[in-house]
Design a protein that fits this description.
The complex is a heterodimer of chains A (356) and B (477). Chain A has 356 residues and is mainly α. Chain A is built from 14 helices and two strands. Chain A has helices at 2-31, 40-50, 54-71, 73-82, 84-106, 110-139, 159-186, 190-221, 223-229, 234-252, 256-278, 289-292, 296-325, 346-355; strands spanning 281-283, 287-288. In chain A, β1 (281-283) and β2 form a beta hairpin. By secondary structure, chain B is mainly alpha-helical. Chain B is 70% helix and 5% strand. Chain B has helices at residues 2-12, 16-55, 58-92, 94-104, 106-127, 134-163, 181-185, 190-218, 224-258, 260-267, 299-304, 328-362, 369-396, 408-411, 418-449, 469-472, and strands spanning 168-170, 176-179, 278-280, 283-284, 290-291, 294-296, 400-402, 406-407. Chain B is globular. The chains are: A mainly alpha (356), B mainly alpha (477).
Chain lengths: 356, 477
């Protein structure tokens, strides 16, 4: 049963990477969109795109934690003790990011928007970096078993963690750009589609370069996972490479829909490859999945919750995405007359001509 | 690197336990204010929405739509501060989670389910005003209300388990070897504690929202829109209050029977005795005497078990060794918090009775300025009441994190830098809290700037033509 729960855990990590990751990646493009005037359109696209879904996508992370602390509590204790610093930064980053994103939508002046937007965008990059660094610390065997603290610094400032962090940022930026192309194309905005298509291609190349360099890093710094990736997880790695290359080809040919599917498979399969490469360890070479597993009563309860989620929550989640994709969730509430600038507002007179 | 590290360790070598407690207390105290809004505001919004659709009521429609916009902000802040708590279980209490996670953690598996549902449907509801059919849109709000209630029940079930740990078997070395998830979730303390929190959410949410409209009315905005906003919210709070008193009374009696030491701290009882007075305020001294306060003879005994009246025996603090009961300071904190909770709760009850009586005898809400002034304060008072109640249950459990099984000091992290994260958390949360209030106030001011509602802003009405074409004119398949 512990294997099934571990598979569920891996699935949750994949979902967080594919759905939640894209929300973080959107923050990366928000950060790099340039000044207030130049970045206005892409930022509007980003805001509309992730607005309805980002809170729900938070739950994947909570779910990862819940599965860890119920089913593999010893590992959870070891991870939180060892990786205290990056986890704290990620937690604070999540607060800063979510709050400032929600605030930015409803404040009135450009200055306020700029500050909140900056906070949102910077923390959107910081959080995936920390998550990647945490994954790197675990994958390279730097987290000891037994609810013990490992090295508080080396566990997240090390070659594999740097690789994990940079790769995470590159991958979420890539995924997000690919999704955004689809979103703006649906809205008929061809100029923005080209804008995000160029960025998606750049991010794809960046992610591929980082991943290729990562092979060398892993061989030197995380031998167990490297061996796994080159043996039992090799088919998944190949699948990821093929899909990643295919997605790039489709991007070049401007076939956004196929590119999106292949991009998702590429990311999902590389995350799965990591999980398979670690097998049978939860914390490589110190704690196996079966040794870390909780009593069967707990595991059964977690699987029941997962079953209920599949029956009750996933249809709702699908509904949310379908409605969003069909453009039925256009904006918060309806536009209130008071949301528009007053006719007499001087800002209005200055801003209007440049808008058109 | 090593020298830098050495310096950092030197600077940060501070006992983590008090800081971990402070950080947990601070983040929970912050998050618990957002919980009532997440749980009960959706319900109030649906009342307004229902009224709007049933009776073609424009004011109600605008109210529901604006509330959903405010809710989007408070829900977002609640979601992220809630996520932080799931980091903190491990960051601050790794030994607790390592040893008890398999039991304590189980309710969260279901909480995740409900929170997911809530997040999904609140997004559909908030973003669906314009394009979904009116009644379909209304129904997408219903899962939010249900999931909000069940989600808070799940979280409180975990907290209740800390008060009444059950559903596990320990090995001879103290490891959890078997777990009965049903027993964990439905532990002895869960039904009453969960009811107390859910009703608190409605009570606080109702009074908090109503207080905004009471303030508006005091400033002369006595139009139908403000009246409606006040009546919907205040009614929710006023109905919840007497129920809350009854549930709280049962819960106190449960504590009397099952957590006698906590009860002794609540009632300030140093030694086991009968005919225990209910001491209002006052404090316990190191030597076991009580100074100050107004004792009401025999009342604590009588309330603990009315069937035996003043002869009911209440167990004293000194029946357990000093290291297994709250310290003197903690005892005084618990007792003061208890007095604040019951005192303010009683004031809110009186206010609710005033409101109810006015509806029964005059068929309208009270309109006197004194009532509105009291109602304007009721929101903040209700929040203080809830915080005080939470202090009672948490501080009253000290020094245990798992009642009679594990102490807080054995549960905490060994990371000596917690004081730094505490300061960072306080700074960040203060900024977020302040901004939340400023943003909500800014929204309200902008909403107010329009005196009359024009056609396009009525939800479900014709959509406004001036919206940029790219977003809106795309054909829907």
């Amino acid at each position: 049963m512990s294997t099934t729960v571990a598979a569920v855990l891996l699935l949750a990590v994949v979902a967080y990477a594919v759905f939640g990751g894209a929300d973080f990646g959107a923050g990366f493009w928000d950060l790099t969109a340039g000044g207030t005037k130049r970045g206005r359109r892409p930022r509007a696209v980003i805001e509309r795109s992730i607005g309805p879904v980002w809170e729900a996508n938070h739950v994947w992370l909570i779910f990862i934690f819940v599965v860890l602390w119920t089913s593999f509590s010893e590992a959870y204790a070891s991870i939180t003790l060892t990786l205290f610093v990056p986890l704290t930064i990620a937690a604070l980053g999540i607060v800063l990011r979510g709050a400032s994103f929600a605030f930015r939508k409803v404040v009135a002046t450009t200055g306020e928007r700029r500050i909140l937007g900056g906070a949102f965008a910077i923390s959107s990059v910081l959080v995936p970096y920390c998550m990647g660094a945490i994954a790197g610390g675990i994958a390279s065997g730097r987290v000891p078993a037994g609810g013990q603290a490992g090295d508080p610094v080396d566990s997240w400032i090390n070659p594999t963690s740097v690789l994990g962090g940079v790769l995470a940022v590159a991958v979420v930026a890539y995924l997000s750009a690919v999704y955004l192309i689809w979103d703006v194309r649906r809205a008929g905005d061809l100029e923005m589609a080209g804008y995000f298509r160029r960025r998606a291609m750049a991010a794809a190349v960046a992610a591929a370069v980082v991943a290729a360099a990562g092979v060398l890093v892993l061989r030197a710094d995380a031998p167990y996972v490297f061996d796994g990736l080159t043996s039992r997880a090799l088919p998944l790695v190949i699948l990821s490479v093929v899909c990643g290359a295919g997605a790039l080809v489709l991007l070049v040919r401007d076939a956004a829909r196929g590119a999106r599917l292949l991009a998702v498979i590429a990311v999902a399969s590389i995350v799965c490859a990591w999980g398979v490469a670690q097998w049978p360890y939860l914390l490589p070479e110190s704690l196996t999945i079966s040794a870390a597993a909780s009593p069967t009563g707990t595991l059964a309860a977690v699987l029941v919750a997962v079953g209920l989620a599949a029956v009750l929550v996933l249809p709702g989640f699908a509904l949310l995405y379908v409605l969003d994709q069909k453009g039925l969730l256009p904006e918060e509430g309806v536009e209130d007359a008071s949301d528009r600038p007053l006719e007499s507002s001087p800002v209005d007179h200055i801003r209007r001509p440049t808008d058109r | 690197m090593n020298a830098m590290l050495g310096g950092a360790v030197l600077v940060a070598a501070v006992d983590p336990v008090p800081w971990a407690r402070a950080q947990m207390a601070f983040t929970l105290a912050f998050h618990i204010i957002l919980v009532p809004l997440g749980v009960s505001w959706a319900f109030m919004t649906l009342i307004a929405n229902y009224r709007a659709l049933r009776h073609d009521d424009r004011d109600a429609l605008v109210l529901a739509q604006r509330w959903s916009k405010y809710m989007a902000v408070t829900f977002a802040v609640g979601a992220v501060t809630g996520t932080v708590l799931s980091f903190e279980f491990g960051l601050l209490w790794p030994r607790f989670m390592g040893q008890w996670g398999e039991a304590f953690g189980v309710p969260f598996a279901f909480e995740g389910l409900f929170f997911f549902t809530e997040a999904i449907f609140i997004a559909i509801y908030i973003f669906g005003w314009r394009r979904l059919k009116p009644w379909a849109h209304f129904w997408t709000g219903v899962p939010v209300v249900l999931a909000g209630i069940l989600g808070s029940v799940s979280v409180v079930a975990a907290n209740a388990w800390m008060n009444a740990p059950s559903g596990f078997t320990l090995s001879s070395s103290g490891e959890v070897v078997e777990v009965d998830p049903i027993q964990v979730i439905f532990n002895d303390s869960m039904p009453l504690q969960a009811a107390h929190m859910v009703i608190a959410a409605y009570l606080v949410g109702g009074f908090l929202v109503a207080s905004v409209y009471a303030t508006g009315m005091l400033r002369g905005r006595r139009d139908r829109y403000h009246h409606l906003g006040f009546v919907i919210a205040f009614s929710v709070g006023a109905i919840a209050t007497p129920i809350q008193m009854a549930v709280g009374d049962s819960l106190a009696r449960w504590v009397y029977s099952n957590q006698p030491v906590k009860f002794a701290a609540i009632e300030l009882v140093p030694e086991t005795s009968s005919d225990v007075p209910e001491t209002l305020l006052g404090r316990l001294n190191e030597d076991g005497t009580i100074s100050g306060g107004i004792p009401i003879p025999g009342l604590a005994s009588w309330l603990s078990d009315p069937s035996t009246g003043r002869s009911t025996v209440v167990q004293g603090l000194n029946t357990v060794p000093a290291d297994q009961r709250p310290t003197i300071r903690q005892t005084n904190t618990v007792h003061l918090a208890w007095d604040v909770m019951v005192g303010l709760g009683t004031l809110l009850l009186l206010l609710s009775v005033w409101y109810g009586a006015s509806w029964i005898f005059r068929r309208r809400m009270p309109v006197s300025r004194w009532f509105l002034r009291a109602a304007a304060c009721a929101g903040v008072l209700a929040v203080i009441t809830m915080e005080a109640g939470w202090v009672v249950t948490e501080v009253g459990r000290q020094p245990w994190i798992v009642y009679n099984h594990m102490k807080v000091e054995d549960a905490a992290t060994g990371n000596t830098g917690v004081w730094i994260t505490f300061l960072a958390v306080v700074a960040l949360y203060t900024a977020v809290g302040t901004t939340t209030i400023l943003v909500l106030r800014g929204m309200s001011r902008r909403f107010r700037r329009t005196e009359r509602f024009t056609d396009h802003e009525v939800p479900y009405g014709p959509s406004e033509p001036a919206v940029p074409a790219a977003a809106d004119e795309e054909p829907v398949r």
